[in-house]
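Hey,
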Amino acid sequence: MDTRGRLLLKALTWQGTGFVVMLMIGWLVTGSVSAGGSIAIAGAVSGFCAYFLHELLWSKVSWGLKLSKTT
């Protein structure tokens, strides 16, 4: 099971990557770096929150996990 710190770091690195991609898409669609940046910021904040909550909820679900055997 991931620690909350690990979940947070995973969410931050994922959102950083997504931010750059969304900025590029927003810039290409609108032709404006500032509009693309606004779209990317809104997407990053909402996506970060959704991802973190999703991971927290799934960390409570035991379905599909294999327990490792220790000797």
